[in-house]
Amino acid sequence: MEPTRDDSIRTITPRSLFEVYEEGKPVELIDVRTPAEYREVHATMARLAPLERLDPVALFGARTDGNEPLYVICRTGARSKKACEAFAAAGFGDRVVNVEGGTLAWEKAGLPVVRGKKTISLERQLRIVAGGIVLGGVVLGAVVDPWFNLLAAIGGAGLIFAGVTDICPMAMVLARMPWNQAGGSSASCRP
User: Which is the catalytic residue, given 74, 84, 168, 189?
Assistant: First the structure.
């Protein structure tokens, strides 16, 4: 099945991608989640290339068949869309395809995955930390000093910024934490 376009980024469903694979056509699939998320569960044919260290030029330079599409997957499709945008900015937009719905949709379709050690997803970690900052600021503001309410305000402003711009500095920091680096081997990424 041929990929479709969504806002200038080509997309494909997990089922359609697996059909391409079953037909014996070359399929290069990169997973742009953290190494810990990749270790927990990933599509059988996926290799790791974490978004926070993704180097589109180096990755395309290392490919043996640069004419075939490069498929990109993450947990839900959001980070892989960002990766596709990075590839497009580097001039490779016509050769990358985002997997709709990510690994969650892949699993839901009953397609083969590799399972490893359980981990907390980056999205859940972000909610835990942001909630902790807001709650901590409110509690400390009520008990210790009203100035601690600024923590809650900064946390809320950060969440609004992330929602409006689709850029989350806190997620970028969390992705680099040691517990998110365990396991998996990176492919075509900067150190």
Answer: 74
